[in-house]
Amino acid sequence: MVEKRIKAIIIDDDPMVREVNKNFIKKVKGFDIIGEAGNGDEGIQLVKQLQPDVVILDIYMPKKNGVKTLQEFRKQAFNVDVIVVSAARDKETINTMLQNGAVDFIIKPFKFERLKRAMENYRFYKLSMDNRETLSQSELDAILHNNQSSDTRDSLPKGLNMFTLNEITDYMHKETDPKSAEEVATAIGIARVTARRYLDYLEKKGKIRLAVQYGSVGRPINRYIMESKE
User: Fold this and answer.
1) Fewest Cβ atoms closer than 10 Å to its Cβ: which of 18, 28, 118, 174?
2) Is 143 a domain residue?
3) pLDDT digits over 191-207, tens only?
4) Which residue positions in the chain have pLDDT lower than 70?
5) CB–CB of 24/112 below 8 Å?
6) Last residue of a domain, one of 126, 143, 163
7) 4-aspartylphosphate is carried by which residues (predicted)?
8) CA-to-CA distance for 209 and 230, rounded, in angstroms?
């Protein structure tokens, strides 16, 4: 399975910051930086031209700041999400950006892990929404909250993480036929032994069930399918 790659644009007036953010995002699975701009006016034209999925947006910029840029995105009904990365930390600015639909707000200076988490959360949200026409309440809760309740986090075995668990769960939800650990590993881009650990965990939790496939020769193959599917 070939996963959709997410197209991103960076809008920041500082070339060094743009370069740092670009290098950080390149380290996160599933993203392509398709453009960058040094102010809001340039950014608006770039979004109109390239139609990215998400914009990494600064606030303090010449010509048109990030607040006005985001408001212009909404005025022109651009189908684009925004992650704010800015030194702004006052309540009014933060509220304004969130009220205008920013999906995350990262305050400079920040560590790579914080941006990585924002990008991974966005990727999970984007792919999950794109792969469904309708959603149940439990599916919507998982997407909006990324399945990261404290109880779930605390119960994960050592070595497992929520992002990969969500990726595998989402993949299994879409598949109609039972899948082996090797097939899951190839689809997600992880090692087979790692996929097996996640699948075993999901089976123990009752989320998926084991469907052993017996061939005419050789060892039987363990395959897995979502519990709700026949």
Assistant:
1) 174
2) yes
3) 899 999 999 999 988 88
4) 1-3, 146-155, 215-218, 228-230
5) yes
6) 126
7) 58
8) 10
